[in-house]
Amino acid sequence: MAISVSLSIPFSSFFSSLNSSSSFFSLPKTIYSNTQCSEFSLKTERKTSWYRPLAVNCCSGDDLISNNANGRQHPLSSLAPFGVTMNENGKSHSSYKWRRVLLKVSGEALAGDQAQNIDPKITMAIAREVASVTRLGIEVAIVVGGGNIFRGSTWAGSSGLDRSSADYIGMLATVMNAIYLQATMESIGIPTRVQTAFRMSEVAEPYIRRRAIRHLEKGRVVIFAAGTGNPFFTTDTAAALRCAEINAEVVLKATNVDGVFDDDPRRNPNALLLDTLTYQDVTSKELSVMDMTAITLCQENNIPVVVFNINKEGNISKAIRGDGVGTFIGTPSNPETART
What is the distance between the alpha carbons of residues 46 and 88, in angstroms, rounded to a whole number? Predict the structure, then answer.
């Protein structure tokens, strides 16, 4: 394919015009940036003392330049990104199990070794894990807890503090965690929005379902803070609720343990890790995975839950791929089947 352009312009300003948006001259960037171009030459003839007619010849294969007229596209656009495979028809499909997920991060997980309320190494590890999957086109929303700063259910009744007031203080703690996590993510280039269940417009957006979904569609990470905005409801319930509202496909519950065990692994070293569970198993055995309101909401909306250890590198992306990390909680008929 050859392109020939003849112009009468000042020679000194020719190259600056290549990158300009001027209406009289425009070339696709591919022409002069692609290293596979076989010829690029300028031909000049003397006409006046400082104006010269210029001829630009650019020769390359038809496969190097996008042609909007006939609908052809650059062949690189058909290459699959990392984590995406091609089927026999040449169409791409992701090797990841879910495309929109909700990550629930407990306050205790953010505290790390408990030496301080928030461990910067933990938040940076979360940010890098989330970055690795958002670059693949996976949409990630996050619900954060506040137990590393203040847990309402623990403080209720102390010094005359009623449960509602204690829960509101706990909601404010989740906002602190959310803002810290947002700052960490944006420090490594991840566009992030914080939405709170009640208005705090100076520091975050109010929760608006459609706006949250739009942020996700644009590739931004959305952090939901302040729980549901109501006392007596945990952040686990907020995670299940937000997951259902934004049509996420799974709740990934990040904790400090490897999953759900048949006994407390801290007291019993012989406790066995359970690979799969049904919702009925969790409720009937009273397993401390999520509170009953949260697990019931997941069951009613057929939302699977994956419980895993956030402290192990790569576990977030493994959970999204469905690699069998941690414990999978799903429907009785087929716990391995994702929500449709």
Answer: 57
* Residue type at position 309: N
φ/ψ of 196, rounded to 5, equals -110, 150
Note the pLDDT of residue 136: 86
User: What is the distance between the alpha carbons of residues 175 and 224, in angstroms, rounded to a whole number?
Assistant: 8
Contacts of residue 198, defined as CB under 8 A and 6 or more positions apart, other chains included, come to 171, 206, 226, 229
What are 3-48's pLDDT values in tens digits? 444 444 444 444 444 444 444 444 444 333 344 444 434 444 444 4
Q: What CATH architecture is 100-330?
A: 3-Layer(aba) Sandwich (3.40)
Coil, helix or strand for 183? helix
List every span in the chain annotated with CATH 3.40.1160.10. Answer: 100-330
Q: What is the mean pLDDT of the chain?
A: 77
Question: Of 252, 219, 241, whose CA–CA distance to 293 is shortest?
Answer: 241
pTM of the model: 0.70
